[in-house]
Amino acid sequence: MRLNRIIPCLDLRDGRVVKGVRFEGLRDIGDPVEIAGRYSDAGADEIVVLDVSATSEGRSATPALVRRIREVVDVPVVVGGGIGDVETANRLLDAGADKVSVNTAAVMRPELIESLRDRFGRQCVVIAIDAIRRDRMGWELLVRSGRGRTGLDAIGWASRAVDLGAGEILLTSHDRDGTRSGYDLGLIRSITRAVSVPVVASGGAASWRDFAAAFASGATGALAAGVFHEGQVGIGDLKRSLLAAGKEIRTC
Hints:
- By secondary structure, the protein is of the alpha/beta class.
- The protein has ten helices and twelve strands.
- It has an eight-stranded parallel barrel with strand order 1-4-5-6-7-10-11-12, surrounded by six helices.
- The longest helix has 11 residues, at 32-42.
- The two termini are 16 Å apart.
């Protein structure tokens, strides 16, 4: 049985953890190493580190920071931001990342997914999907930290990415990001029905009930940032509430 995962996310800009709403209005939260260590100690099952300005600035996430985070956490670390080739991914994995997350570069050059799979194995390849609702036409795939429209169907892209070698989908609802209005359950259900790999839901969590709803909709991981950063939800209390509700959660 695959246990559900609780995953804090550290969005980075200029080496600091930031948080906003729909990728805008970013405010400083603190030092990523200190925050990562605190979440690891609190019982996080995994930590995602995303450098949200790397792609627009033409660079990648920093291996040196990954090494510093790796020194203080004992859970898997996923790193994303500006990863456009196998060599960059290799440097981040060598620095201590367990998986790499790719969005824009994979959309621009889908063969990158195959290259990453062939070099590191499917289990290391996470495809990040930022999706925005298109009225009754489903969801459109976004790139460049939500600032670029592609015209592509997000569900179709998820299926293609898995066929190419993605081992996991990190699924963010652009509409819900930072709003604390709950995960987009329709989006989660649509994606999980289309792919055979684990899906991590992101965007909109406000309480343990939102995490429970994401798991009930097919996600095997639920990611959040603001509710953890501001202490609205504690990881230990969250896990206890989910266990009481009958959800299969990792407890160590």
